[in-house]
Amino acid sequence: MLDGSANTAGSSGSGRGAPGRPGAACRRAAGCVGTPAPVPPPPLRDGYTVTSPVTLRDLVGFRPASGIDYMQPNGWMVVGLDTNFYAVAGPQEQQGLLLAQQASVRFTALRFHWSYGDGATRSTATGGSPWAAQGAGEFDATSTSHIYRNPGTYSIDLTIDFSAEYRYAGGDWTAIAGSIPVQANRLVATASAAQTVLVGSDCAANPTGPGC
Question: What mean pLDDT comes out for the span 172-177?
């Protein structure tokens, strides 16, 4: 009888079960006898660092400066002719703490998004340059120029996407996935219709000439 009672109690799932093998009820009950305790991870030792990919969210304290948007002619446009827009946004390197370690972060202009104020937009991989730097003449078309079809005053906005890289202790640069959009200065300019005037000579050489 004693043996039979012991066997019955052992198979009823009362919580004790066989040594080293907790019953079903014991496995469900937190902290009961026979439940294996969770094993904590070993502590980090000096000189060991946990590493993970750096993301744009980790760039706390780092921010690329906005580029500068320029236009030619400066402050006005001629309806029906190209107005040249170009941006200056060189590489930028900054130093500071990145994930609690001293690091360098470098920003590079990646893409330029113009909104010309008349509903037209353009995205380019280049910021463009002045007409003279391109060997172009005044009102020549460029990769970043735009033609206004109607007179009026327009606000021109530019957003520049910057890529980011980082390095620790003068090591190799490592690219960070994604880009950071930064708004440049707003330009406000007036487009007017051109007037054709017959002149007797080059007005630059002879400002008092007929028609000048």
Answer: 96
